[in-house]
Amino acid sequence: MDLSYGPEYETYRAEVKAFLEANWPLEGEEKDLGLAEQSVLFRKRAIAAGYLGRSIPKQFGGSEQESDPLKGQVIREEFGKKWAPMDAPGIGTMMLVPTLLERGETWMKEKWVENTILGHTQWCQGYSEPGSGSDLASLKTKGELVGDEWVINGQKIWTSGAQTADFMFCLCRTEPDAQKHAGISYLLIDMKQPGIDIRPLKQMNGPAHFNEVFFTDVKTPKDWIVGKRGEGWLVSRTTLKHERNSIGNAAGAEAMFRGLVKLAKESKIDGVPAIDHASVRQQLVEIEGYVQAHKYSGFLQMTAGLRGENPGTIALMNKIHSTNIGDKVAKLSFDLLGDEGLTDPANSGGGLLGGGGSVAGWVSQYMGSLGIAIAGGTANVQRNVIAERGLGLPRDYYASSKSAAGKA
Amino acid sequence: MDFGLSEEQQLLQETIGQFLANENDPNQLRARFDAEDAFDEGLWKGMMELGIGGLLVPDEFGGAGVDMVDAAIVSEQMGFGAAPGPFLGHTLAGLAIALGGSDDQKKTWLPKLATGDALATVAFGEEGGSWQPDQWSPSGDRLTGKKVYVPYAAQADLIVVGTAGGGLALVEPGDGTTIELFDNVDRSRRLYTVTFDGAAASALPSGADVSGQVRDAALILLAADAFGGASRLVEMSVEYAKTREQFGVTIGHFQALKHQLANMALDTEPSRALFWYAAHAYDAVPEDREKMAALAKSHITDRFMQVSRDATEAHGGIGYTWECDVQMWFKRAMFDRIWMGSPSSHRERVAQLSAW
Fold this sequence. Notes:
With 408 residues, chain A is of the alpha+beta class.
């Protein structure tokens, strides 16, 4: 075993550092631009240098680098240290771009890939519906082909960023007579048109990151479909995997744990620093056990990837292992806050992950940790995935018999 | 960057696993578990032929001289098979002499330990949960004091004793040494109470310098054993869920049980990388050695405990019987958790090592 990156990658690291030294932050007149414009300028240069858009062909605006997870890791580390922009964050880069690259038509890739990774174009995801959560394939939003256009009617929910998005990638039922999964198509929809009604959903901790989206005779061109009619379910599967991986990330867990230790040092219980109390020390180290297991499981999976080996069941556990850590951190931090835990974070901000050092941030994380455990497949859905795909247990008897028997 | 087993390590893992699957299947294990002393000479001899006797003994003294990662994956296999016998104490005794012994002590003992011509064990624990070097008390040129939970002391030719001041001394059981069987719940690893009353002893010259490292090795081997044992229980419980039928279907169809099994896997699987890293730190990252050993022991033996309780429950009524294989691993978990100090004692050590 060897956890160092080796001389080849240290040389590469030096190159990345030199690039950043010369290119970020921006200088001269450019530094007076808005952050969004600065980011686009920087991304273009980083793509030209081969540091961003690495898995994207040059003809669609990427830098088309040979796949090398270690180089990717070095870039993340060095860009992270200098707060330099990565490929534009969000669901467009994470989910739509890989889907288009794999399943989209050439004109779609030309139209959207580069604009999305640069940050010009924002996307939102239209999957969940009020009656279709874990049983997503039961979705009902209707897409009807009328002449050269799809006409869409129905309702989506939990749509993050719907107000700011330019487009939505959306699962619609276009083949009402087909069997459940086979009746779905993957459509792209312009969000700036009449007939779209967006209503924010206020979260329990205050902010409104997601929305309900109502469609009334919304139109999209006939060829704005990824894959064929009725293939939408298959097209969407690759993207869900991307989302799960991105949430299971040990850097977040480590940062959260460091924040928790800091909170324990700053808080007092009975006039004594909390971190001097045996029970707090025990709970902290108990959490650290999970954090370190999570961290090194990441190295293990990365190595398996580099070797071209199957990492095994652990690959299905990243999300729930990480959100279980978030749950433990939430509960201990709430005790450490003492009476201040009664503070409503709704009016004083506080990020979803908390730990920003503020009381509101921690109270917000106390709730937000649940949001993360629910988003992108609840913990119970994750347990099903581990049981069925990891342990080889049979699919739920009731669910599989219903799916086989009925249409949507 | 390579955080995985080498081909040699994978081969070692398979060899030990296959040996135990052949020579210690659950029926053979049960017979040993129910026997008077659980010391099966044939099984031990077979292990010696595989070179397990001198895993951490340098090759110049006839040992295998492998890294801690290798020793840990052997220990993982021991846990997976709930292998009965003196592997743990014998391995640690060899390590203690290799690290802290004089040339003479090494030449006298290590070749014999490596071949299995001599059996050794370690006497670290004392009454009141005192396992750590700074808690050891026997003293004197002729050793006086009491040690508890000493594995296979009655069969041992040599005992490495933890002494006052964190030192280590060699005692060949004889005059001045009294050995009594302890009624230990984990019958795959028999324990004895050993009382020294003016026993002839020969101190390891560097004993006090290396006893912490030997302790860390013990913690890593226990963590690895616990991971292996927990993995076996997950496997057994999943297998049971796929065969046992109720309401006309195998019980693995029912979500309540599926989630319990998923939680067991989730308790177990991420721990693999934790014991790997603890072993790797022992070999190559000195500043992390002590803390990661303590963290791995506390975390993984706790997970093993939970998994063993869940496995019993997942098997229903049969899980509560002596006849069911689960109980042998359930008790392995009890041993791994307690021996060399409780999870909470090691968590407090981690907190101190973190300068909290």
